[in-house]
Amino acid sequence: MTAKSNLAEFNEWIESRYPHQPEFLQATKELAEDVMPVYNAHADYKSYNVLKRLSEPERIVNFAVHWVNDNGEVEINRGWRVQHSGLIGPYKGGLRFHPTVNESVLKFLAFEQSFKNALTGLPMGGAKGGSEFNPKGRSDNEIMRFCQAFMQELQRHIGPQTDVPAGDINVGAREIGYLYGQYRRMHNKFGGSLTGKDIDFGGSHVRTEATGFGLIYMLECVLVQHNDKLEDKRIAISGAGNVALHAALKATELGGRVISLSNSRGCYIKEEGLSTTAIRWAIDNRMSEDNVLTALTEQHGGSWFEGSKPWGFPADIALPCATQNELDESSAKQLIDNHCGYVLEGANMPTTHQAKTQLTNADIVFVPGKAANAGGVALSGMEMSQNAAFERKSFATLDDELRSIMAHIHLRCAEEGTEGERVNYAKGANIAAFRQLANAMVAQGV
């Protein structure tokens, strides 16, 4: 790249190396498009080839997981840990147990995590890991045995100063407990080797709420930036998991009107807005109900639309909080036609590249996940800090710190992304994070 230094050359290079990893290609190419002018303007960045180097994971650990199911049969799964960048701190990122897990997905997530973590201002590198193991339909004992076998391999590559995993899809408090217990027994040490732990053994207040609450704190900053306010805004949220429900709760507490939730089966709509009572009921019952949204309809009213998404219903603000690439071109057109003003990503890369282009061209304010959903990893960083200091901070203190970190992220995005009277948050987030990682890479040499 030092010879040609252009976007086309970078895209050709990354595509030739990873032609069968679409998620990873999408993430790297989108970032390169935003940061290429900054890269070309700095001789040190070019001489140290930082853009290509930042696009390659520092390490990928791939291992077999052998474990015994309840029938006494030995099963075999694959495990991965993608340690993308340790330039500014220990590798940090979640573990995901899901049939869709593969190297491309984890590389894209670890890449995004590295830039997201840099935005927080906390000393954390970026990583992601997991397995294609599907916990659905498994007994608690089977999940425990799988987690123990998974950690038996992973423990060689993690630790408080090296790599600190957390939870992600299908890795919640139960799984973190099993994983942490195995690590503690093998190393005979109690400490911050994982985050997302239960409050009784080194966990932190606000960890469950952090990503959803942080998303709304970012939304508040965005609205203030555009001389707007949250009160009485119609908010469409996709998803019905931890992030979606806690975002809905905080938005409602602050005066917003949350009109939707969704899952893979359909969409729940309540035009007058969900109450905090209804949202808390969903939070308390989402794990015990087969479909918490149809149950929510029966318990607290509203309408269920089988096979639908929430984007076709009029809303001022859209918060995609479900999964990657859920908001496509047709969904973007619906939001534009309904005069939506703001889209903030609560999930990791839930908006397709084509949809982002449509939203931007329509002057809809768009905030990418690496900025908008950074609250979860920010709180993980605070859990690491509490573990290192052998202290526990109060819920209120941590909530205030979370709000402050999200305001800091917004400020960095606005500083780098202001274009006239509007802010290009995607470009601002990418450039701000890239500068920090690129500067660290140059300072540390080759």
What CATH architecture of the largest domain do you see? 3-Layer(aba) Sandwich
Low-confidence stretches: none
Query: Between the first and last Cα atoms, what is the distance in angstroms?
Result: 16 Å
Rg, rounded, reads 21 Å
Mean pLDDT score: 95
| Broad structural category | alpha/beta
Counted by DSSP, the helix tally is 17
CATH superfamily of the largest domain: NAD(P)-binding Rossmann-like Domain
Q: Please tell me the total number of domains.
A: 3
Binding site for NAD(+): 211, 242
GO molecular function: glutamate dehydrogenase (NADP+) activity; nucleotide binding
Site (Important for catalysis): 168
Organism: Alteromonas lipolytica
Describe this structure as you would to a colleague.
Helix 2 (22-41) runs parallel beside helix 5 (103-120) and helix 9 packs antiparallel against helix 10. Strand 11, helix 13 (353-361) and strand 12 (365-367) form a beta-alpha-beta unit. It is built from 17 helices and 14 strands. The model has no long low-confidence stretch (mean pLDDT 95). The chain has three domains: 1-56 and 424-446, Orthogonal Bundle (Glutamate Dehydrogenase, Chain A, domain 3), CATH 1.10.285.10; 59-190, Rossmann fold, CATH 3.40.50.10860; 210-363, NAD(P)-binding Rossmann-like Domain (Rossmann fold). Helix content is 48%, strand content 16%. The strands form three sheets. The chain has a seven-stranded mixed beta sheet with strand order 9-8-7-6-10-11-12, with helices on both faces. Strands 1-2-4-3-5 form a five-stranded mixed beta sheet. The chain is globular and about 55 Å long.
